[in-house]
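Field reference: "sequence" (input) and "structure" (output). Example, Glycoside hydrolase family 13 protein:
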Amino acid sequence: MELTAIYHRPESEYAYLYKDKTMHIRIRTKKDDIKSISLHYGDPFIFIEDRYEDSKEMSKVTSDALFDYWQVEITVGYARLQYLFELKDKQGQSILYGDKGCVENTLENLHYEGNGFKIPYIHEIDACHVPDWVANTVWYQIFPERFANGNPEISPEGALAWDSSIKPKTSDFFGGDLQGIIDHLDYLQDLGITGLYLCPIFESPSNHKYNTTDYFEIDHHFGDKGTFRKLVDQAHQRGMKIMLDAVFNHIGDQSPQWQDVLKHGEDSVYKDWFHIQEFPVTKDKLGNPRKLPYHTFAFASYMPKLNTANPQVRDYLLSVATYWIEEFDIDAWRLDVANEVDHQFWRDFRKAVLAKKPDLYILGEVWHTSQPWLNGDEFHAVMNYPLSDSIKDYFLRGAKKTSQFINEINSQSMYYRQQISEVMFNLLDSHDTERILATAKGDIQLVKSALACLFLQRGTPCFYYGTELELDGGPDPDCRRVMPWDRVSDSNEMLNFMKKLIQFRKDVSNIIQHGTYSLQEIKPDVLALEWNNDGQKVQAIFNQSSEDYLVDSDAVALASHCQELDQQLVILPKGFVIFY
């Protein structure tokens, strides 16, 4: 038995209150090393009677390249919990594992109070709570300047023609605005969208609006507050949620606060709003952006970093966050560069916004594993870029073997508490990445497989505007081309595919969110995925090989690049089929 591989940590993603009085307990062991694990548990004060009250067999729920992961769900009828693991390997060895580590499996050690892991009191308030509506939402990300021009009268001077073949430059404007989004809400509703994620809409001189001038004003090229209120109201009438982008890590250099610093230097009342290393404040030294005398987003001199530990900055930004909830009833905040802002600010942010709207969704932009932000006191979820990378590497780039992909997805499934996983923001591309059609080098069948896989993952799926119309584009700024509205038609195959995929996801959402899953390589480069929830199953087969794969066609719910043959489906190279 490999003792060094055994791992558990109380009050973490390895032991947490899921909902009501249901606890999830997990443990990690070396892959293929352990035959069975029993969890012994009870109230810690049971030791007056010298025994555990309950015992339950754990299930091996998944495995990656190195480890097996076991889980058990227990209903706790009391407010305290003590527990101990009994592990048996395939050679017959048996040990107990608890707070004191690994010990011999004896009755004395089993009943010794000091061996057990303890959750001294199960406080419901300390559990990770997430908004119920998020898990059943399908998101659509909009870069407002490029989605639709609904009011040409407010377009920037020199705005370019609305042509999706134009590769935009960093400074180009096309005239997209909020009225353009309103004009196409019926289109989005018909598509099946239930959540709109809008990139920043506040006053800013750029086309991307991530260098904010005024957080309390809608950018005048996008419209005004009346237009935004109309957008929110009409979206809500259609059952759609609205998520805004909060850029609180940094501000624009045209903002009054930063301009005051440039004008008054050390005498500015705003000098402590920023991370200024020395005065006078200049844009760079000898033309080297890495020698800036102040901290910024990346090395962008026009985005000075805010000091969110400063009480004045904190209060100002929290007033922004609550204003758009109170005045316009937005449903979610996406937090830009969230991992570079201090944790205490986000704890204060959570308290402030949830006090105004308890079911508001808080989404952080973090591109890596994010346990520190997902313990129930900061974000509800993060943008799931690790999942995105794995899917794109496997389906679009062909850079991963099937076994590697399975190991990565299985490992990621154990990163967080289940309720967090149920609202993780799953995406493949965004305004910050090249478009998936470009990643796939124009192969739409690969794109369909990647999207199907994404929509079969636990979490809340999102796709980038134009994906349903095969909009292409390389890295920023090319990924921000205008929406190709001329491609919309009843005969557009990709558009119809996305409608079917979205509806299918809605039909099986409960199975995915609450079921158990498995990933298997059933033939070289042929991947089988299955969800099972109380006998209800969703099965998918992805063929990434160069050979056809025959599958029984019974109960096919969705397929791509397939042909019928003798009551079977021939999955052509790089295709998939989903059964339900």
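The domain at 3-126 is CATH 2.60.40.10 (Immunoglobulin-like).
Residues 275 and 295 are 5 Å apart (CA to CA).
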